[in-house]
Amino acid sequence: MKLNLLILLFSILGIHAFAQVSVTPISTENNPASENLVPNESFERFSSTPIGWFYKGSHFTDVMKYWSSATGTSPDVFGKNVRVPSQWAEKGFGDQKARTGNSMVGITVYGCEDGKPHCREYLQIQMKEPLVVGQKYQVDFWVSQLPNTIGVNNLGMAFHDEQLYEKTEMVLDKLTPEVVSANVVKAEGHWVKVTGSFTAKKELDYLIIGNFFKDSDTTADEKTSCTLKYAYYYIDDISVKKADPIINVPVKADDLCCLEVEKGDIIQLKEIFFDTDKAELLPRSYVELNKLLTLMNRYPTMIIRINGHTDKLGGHDYNIGLSNRRSKAVADYLIQHGVATNRVTYKGYGSTNPIADNETVEGRQLNRRVEFEVISN
Predict the structure, then answer these.
(1) What value does the CA radius of gyration of the chain take, rounded to a whole number of Å?
(2) In the Cβ-directed half-sphere of 7, how many Cα atoms lie within 13 Å?
(3) Per-residue pLDDT tens for 81-140?
(4) Residue among 288, 334, 171, 146 at smallest CA distance from 228
(5) Tell me, what DSSP letter sits at residue 23?
(6) CA 61 from chain center: how many Å?
(7) Based on the domain organization, do 199 and 337 belong to the same domain?
(8) Which of 242, 270, 287 is the last residue of a domain?
(9) What is the Cα–Cα distance from 351 to 376, expressed in whole angstroms?
């Protein structure tokens, strides 16, 4: 049984917000239409079957769908199909049940000065849409402290404009969190909610969760009964939502949904995202694809072909196959959302139609693209 009664008793912690941001909690019940911008917010979806624990950030990134590690360290995954190594199970790792569903993750957030390996771990995800400048957001995430570990403050959320992968195993102290717990989070064996609000100052895509302060700048509550000299928290149910009033974002002149198109036009889709070497659309892609749906509705007889392209890295046949699968994923999205099958086809060109120099990183990035070509309108 979930600890719902305890949740009601331990729901709100002290919050400090940076840059003069108000921290008064806002009830999401007053804004039921506001969508949670965090995909896989409860860690229930996996990219591959987890069979054990992870020791590198890349392991976590490969297993947990849409989430990644921002450093070389690895957050831990807990669920019914995950085996916790015996030496860690003996310390109580995995005894806590997920707040909702079957799965959750855990991160170390303190203990560098006592020599704890992987003393900082961070969760990272690309949100469904970027932050809107001037928009106020309500953010929440639930935490539960591993018993016999140190309780600390400074659990927080930061935002960034690109995906991070720092080789460090230490503190990401160059990031400034928008919301952070001012008080020590005491939550041994139960769930509490870290919650606050902030107003966006930049269009940022990525959310990162962890402790962004050095041990010397973190308040620790080390009881005499603590047998583990570090801080470790389970994390579950993460939410980033727009708070009232909702800002209407102006439509740019070159926005996809507003284009005038003619037969023969080839138009690049600006923000289509896939994981490396994979063909599954990431949720951030839906913003651009929904604009394409709007355009298709505005031109109800238009027929298009989705063209996929790669850079020159990899073999010819592999690149043709990858670009074909990616263009098919875009076509499938359109069809699944109401576009008739006879209005959209797809084709993968691999690296045969570059638009930039494949010998440079920048050029290869430009060559990795998805376009739509107007066959008739």
Answers:
(1) 23
(2) 15
(3) 888 989 999 999 999 999 999 999 999 999 998 778 889 999 999 999 999 999 999 999
(4) 146
(5) -
(6) 11
(7) no
(8) 242
(9) 26
Q: Which domain holds residue 199?
A: 4-242
- Residues 6+ away with beta carbon under 8 Å from 170: 112, 119, 120
Distance CA 204, CA 64 (A): 22
Q: Which residue has tokens 């108000």?
A: 22
Structure-token pair, residue 56: 């590198």
Q: Which long-range contacts does 285-292 make (Cβ < 8 Å, 24+ apart)?
A: 285/333, 286/128, 286/333, 287/128, 287/129, 288/256, 289/330, 289/333, 289/334, 290/337, 291/255, 291/256, 291/257, 292/256, 292/257, 292/334, 292/372
The last residue of one of the domains, among 242, 265, 283, is: 242
- CA 368-371-372 angle, to 5 degrees, is 165
Give helix 316-336 / helix 286-298 axis angle, nearest 10°.
Answer: 60
Tokens 């895509």 correspond to 205
pTM given for the model: 0.84
CA separation for the pair 42, 297 (Å, rounded): 34
Neighbours of 317 (CB within 10 A): 9
Looking at the fold, whether 279 and 234 belong to one and the same domain comes out as: no
